[in-house]
Design brief:
elongated, 1 helix, four-stranded antiparallel sheet, five-stranded antiparallel sheet, mainly beta
């Protein structure tokens, strides 16, 4: 029942009948002799093959050794090629953001509009931030495991994010400038996805996916106690809550009508939930800075819905803002000035694998190691 670390910095290890462990690192396969009796390494790892594709998302090596000793593999490709972050204005104009490495997934713009933070893909995904004025990126988190999702505090001084070290997804709080270590604030009860921070700073709304598949919205008190309580807990699935700019309303996704759709309801007090979207959603809804419009992406377009809370809650019909470019993916973060979205863009043909290669009697490379 005991376990021990054999190698640091490698992924997707497998034992082969020649008496070696073969694993991936970067675009190379490494091999090291392994003694089955003592379960220990014998000697030093040696690079034995290059040009193999290794997934930066989960570390999987796209190669397999047959019983006869032949190697089948997918050649390496630059998954970051033609992957970029772009500004998409409401007018439809698209402007790429110049970054040396644009592998930020789910970028979220800070409330002051000066930075964005997002998950940077690697063997262990981490949260990085990018300063628009200085045009510099810096790593923010160092939590063991994979980090996921970003929610900014209203003053742009703190960030809540998820981490999977515990098996599910726990939530951590960290200063946005990285000046102090991350603090775990929500643990267990399934996977917890931070969704939005209330404008007054008192509450973070999260989507909680329980082990039985139930998905509900919970509230986390940000007064230092970090107590959690159910905000919307039903037999249906509710997720992706977003506060209105005045904090009085919450837009969220629910399948209460059979298909996922966006609804709006009061954050506090009684009041019915009113459906705001006509089609199934793709991403979390986004409020305009004045709270009069709700944006969402569905099917092949980005839609806008007029919101009037002068006398209760009145919701207009969804209208197409712009066609949805099939190259856009990930979340759509709305700039605080309300004029443009920050989204990921990639050409699927660039990142698609087109061949599997074979090398016969590959195990001869392991002889003498």
């Amino acid at each position: 029942g005991e376990h021990s670390i054999l190698l640091q910095g490698g992924t997707d290890a497998r034992y082969v009948p020649t008496g070696h462990i073969v694993y991936g690192r970067g675009e190379e396969l490494f091999a090291v002799r392994f003694d089955l009796a003592s379960l220990s390494l014998q000697g030093t790892p040696v690079a034995v093959f290059d040009d193999v594709y290794l997934s930066g998302v989960n570390g999987s090596v796209h190669a397999e050794l047959s019983a006869a000793g032949d190697l089948a593999y997918v050649p390496a490709t630059d998954m970051a090629q033609d992957w970029e972050l772009v500004w998409v204005e409401l007018s439809g104009r698209v402007t790429p953001l110049e970054l040396a490495d644009a592998r930020f997934l789910g970028p979220e713009i800070s409330p002051d509009g000066n930075r964005f933070a997002g998950m940077k893909l690697a063997a262990n995904d981490k949260i990085w931030s990018f300063d628009f004025r200085r045009e510099t990126a810096s790593r923010l988190t160092s939590t063991p495991g994979n980090d996921y999702g970003v929610v900014w505090s209203p003053d742009a001084k703190s960030i809540v994010y998820g981490n999977d070290r515990g098996g599910g997804l726990d939530l951590y709080l960290i200063p946005a400038d990285g000046s102090a270590p991350a603090q775990k604030i929500v643990e267990g009860q399934g996977s917890n996805f931070a969704s939005d921070w209330s404008p007054d700073g008192s509450v973070v709304l999260i989507s909680r996916l329980k082990d039985d598949g139930d998905l509900d919205i919970w509230a986390v008190a940000m007064d230092g106690s970090y107590e959690t309580r159910p905000y919307l807990e039903t037999s249906y699935s509710e997720s992706f809550p977003q506060f209105s700019p005045d904090g009085k309303w919450v837009a969220y996704v629910s399948d209460v009508a059979g298909e996922p759709a966006i609804y709006v309801r009061p954050f506090a007090g009684a009041g019915p939930a009113v459906r705001a979207s006509a089609d199934a959603f793709l991403e979390a809804p986004r409020w305009s800075p004045d709270g009069r419009t709700l944006y969402y992406a569905a099917d092949d377009a980005i839609y806008a819905v007029a919101i009037d809370t002068t006398n209760g809650l009145e919701i207009g019909d969804p209208e197409v803002v712009m066609a949805l470019d099939p190259r856009w993916f990930g979340s759509f973060s709305l700039h605080p000035d309300g004029t443009k979205f920050l989204v990921n863009r990639a050409d699927p043909e660039v990142t698609r694998q087109h061949e599997i290669r074979l090398e016969f009697d590959w195990r001869r490379r392991l002889q003498g190691l």
